[in-house]
Amino acid sequence: MLVDDIREIVGPRGWTTDPAELEPHLTEWRDTARGEALLMVSPATTLEVSAVVQVCAAAGVGIVPQGGNTGLCAGAIPDQSGEQVLLSLSRLNRIRSIDANDFSMVVEAGCILADVQNSARNAGRLFPLSLAAEGSCQIGGNLATNAGGINVIRYGTARQQVLGLEVVLADGTVWDGLRSLRKDTAGYDLKQLFIGSEGTLGIITAATIRLFPLPAATVTAFVGLKSAKQSVELLSHMRESLNDSIQAFELISDRSLRFVERHIPDSKLPFSGNPYPWLVLLDASTDGDDDRITDILAQAIEAGLAEDAIIAKSEAEAARLWRLRHSISEAEKSEGASLKHDVSVPIGRIGEFLERAEHLIRDRLPQARPVIFGHVGDGNLHYNVTQSASGDGEAFRATGGAVTEALYALVTDMGGSISAEHGIGVLKKAQLRRYRSQVELDLMRIVKCALDPKNTLNPGKVI
To answer: Structure pTM?
Structure first.
């Protein structure tokens, strides 16, 4: 029997069918999807993952890999049949090695992102991937979804941080590609197949990741703007002045911060209550010359690219400013039902997109409240639309589908993407079919069929 085989492979600590233990693993973070599982298995080694995958493949049973379950598209949630095996990577949580001179480290998939960052920092190095869920998300999930986060402008997405992978394939075979090479043109770059595939092509069990020098000093600033268009102009000005020294450049709407102030304890808005409709929160490395950032921002204000700026005077103050940004999603949950849109458009068209999207929302859902924040440096905006303060959440969701489709059509018309960093999972499958060409979809299916011919790896997700 499959369950007995799995129990024997992982031992008494490696599986559970207890409803209380399973519950937090069966629901997506925003409560938009819920599934059931035959059992949850938590292998402690790559070999155990391999053995579990082998017996599931032989039985034709679907396997749903799950990291920290912080995803936003239900990509790590089993279906409602109760026949799939939920495979948690949480026990594969070792830092296998750090080579400071090689600027690389080998980490297992279940390592918490914040722990990876801290281990790199303790070795005098920087691992730059950073996002709001870093205290609970796992590096394997970050790679499986090609996570973006706040530092993409300088360091790129998760894909750019990977030198090598270890992957369990659909038949249980282990591919050991944990090389730390920067140059390797010997055939196809296979690791790129699995990064961003959401566990549908293979299960990432470990990765060799790229490290960077620690910045000599980082300045954090909050900048007030009268329009979102100014953010693009300000970024251009600062990049011309600082070249590659800008690490993060986040656009935030005033309403987003108002929600944080209302629902997150000890939140204090900048600028004495914030008189500006838009703000930018930025980090820049200065090599110890903090006055340079002050001068550049002063020039921007004088040139009409910004209205005002606050520069953090300490690491603690910088952390408080970033806490405002990282708390937006949590605060938004307290305001009721919301339509989530993780989109990207060409950087130079961000202002145009926001203007057109505002008219679209005003025409279709005049009482709704857009909550907008995102990463200007890579064109990724989280354009969320929250119900009216006194509205009915279920009714809002029922009517929201047409608005979502209209927004996605606008994004596509502007040369953008319907999924910038959250992936496809289950929730965006229909949109992927609608907004990607038949050639692309056929190529995706060919790859899926080649690597997972029995469709046992995260079935029903992405494609």
So the answer is: 0.93
